Amino acid sequence: MKYGIDALTLYVPKLALALQADWAQARASIFAQGNPELLCQKVEKGIGITHMSIPDYHEDSATMAAMAIKNLMEENEIKPSQIGYLAVATETGLDHSKNMGTYIMGMLEAYFEESFSHVGSAEYKFACIGSTYALESSLALLESKRLSAPYAIVVCSDIAKYQLESSAEYTQGAGAIALLLSENPRLVEIDAGPMGTHSVNAADFYRPLNKEVPVVDGKHSMQIYEQCTFEAYQNLLAHRKQTTRDFDLLNGPIDYCLFHLPFPKMAKHAATFLLKNKELPTSEERKAYSQTEEFQNFLNRKINPSLELAPYIGNIYTGSLYLSLLSLLSSSENCVNKKALFFAYGSGASAKVFSGTIKSNLPLKTKEKLLQRRFLSLTEYEDRHKQLNDQFIPSEQNPSIVPPQNEFIYLGYDQMGPKQGFRKYSYKKES
Ligand code: CAA
Question: What are the extents of the domains in the chain?
Fold first, then answer.
């Protein structure tokens, strides 16, 4: 019996910041010797990003997750009674104790007017790789027939916020992905057997309790990403009793390599490390190799189709690897019966590598929709950035930039009394 991803939806906020115009003007003196054009080039070519998604004032990680699941259920005609498990992956959770899944199910119950009380749920935390741990556990629950219903859902929802004017500022983003998992899946059959895994105790990126933005050592985080990914890949080969030569990424049986994308250029760095770190030990040698025709062909055939959407959204942390999958499935490639290798990474740190067979394309017009968002001015962006934390309470002083219509909204939380800190949500219909 095959198990895997039956359907997938992406939710991104209606707001975005273009990393050009007044933003580039304001930051050029910090990042590009006062030259805004040079900064635009650096961000677009060196990082791979042109736009970052920004949540509106009525949104948080829970509303974005609820939107992704609502759309998943409606588009695939799934009833609450068919769902056995809800795994929530986030690194921008809303409570030290309460599972975000309970807020999400509360919103969905009110919307569908049906009970979710039979649905088991847990929140998974391991930076961006929490989603892949959630996927692995949910698949195991399905395979072992421990669920009372045929479907499990993994929802990945995050708001990537970094310090303004830091070099991480242009790697922010926000969004949610919901994955419907089942037997005989329509989108991706995930190969059975252990995933390649590698974990270490690293100080590359982490967000201590009560800190709004992560502590991040950018260059070090890239090195840890590359090393963990390489070791997890070796671990997968060891499980399968294969060598790098049998499972040659350049010419072997794998059609596509999909990566976690903190920024799109990271896929290229990771791929050169995977292919050549033994033969070309210095970063200069690997950089030179990445310019060769051999590597460029590999990039164009096996990686680039999965990089089409991230430049318009930015880093969505837990959802990022599955955004790469959506990019591939909605690209012009015919993916049917093609083999994909998934490289998951989470800071702190852990990497996992697994393979799957794609069963169908998903021809959504996501890119066109992303170009129709409301683009923020620098002032709107900086004001929103200041208020973008889990303590924020909406009020008349900070109305939604795009008034919500047919979407879940965050209403705030009680500041005192017996329900202090308990968050409230509602659904706003078209007015
Ligand atoms: N035209 C084209 N390219 C240009 C350019 C120009 N005018 N100017 C500069 N560049 C290139 C540089 O040559 C460089 O390319 P290479 O990487 O190929 O050498 C690239 O732009 C980046 O420039 P810098 O080396 O100056 O790097 P930076 O100071 O901009 O920092 C960063 C980049 C480290 C990623 C930083 O944005 C950051 O800290 N981001 C947050 C942390 C992160 O994303 N880490 C990734 C791994 S951790 C992870 O994956 C978990 C997660 O989701 C956070």
Answer: 3-370
Best residue for ligand 1 mutational test, from 41, 126, 167 (most atoms within 8 Å of Cβ) = 167
Q: Is 405 helix (H, G, I), strand (E, B) or coil?
A: coil
How many Cβ atoms are within 10 Å of 212's Cβ, its own excluded? 13
Cα-based angle 43, 46, 48 (whole degrees, multiple of 5): 65
Report how far Cα 328 is from the mean position of its chain's Cα atoms.
14
Three-class DSSP labels, 290-336: HCCHHHHHHHHHHHHHHHCCHHHCECCHHHHHHHHHHHHHCCCCCCC
Buried b (16+ CB within 10 A) or exposed e, 367-389: eeebeebeebeeeebeebbeebe
**Closest residue (by CA) to atom 32 of ligand 1?**
218
Check pocket membership of 126 for ligand 1, CB cut-off 6 A. no
Topology adopted by domain 3-370: Peroxisomal Thiolase; Chain A, domain 1 (3.40.47)
Coil, strand, or helix at residue 269? helix
Question: Which residue from 408, 426, 418, 416 is spatially nearest to 13, judged by alpha carbons?
Answer: 408
Tell which one of 205, 229, 230, 269 to mutate to probe ligand 1, the residue whose CB is within 8 A of the most ligand atoms.
205
pLDDT (tens digit per residue) in 356-396: 999 999 988 899 999 999 999 999 999 999 999 999 999 98
The pLDDT tens digits for 200-228 are 999 999 999 989 999 999 999 999 999 99
Predicted local distance difference test score (pLDDT) of residue 243 = 82
Ligand 1 centroid to Cα of residue 343, in Å, is 19
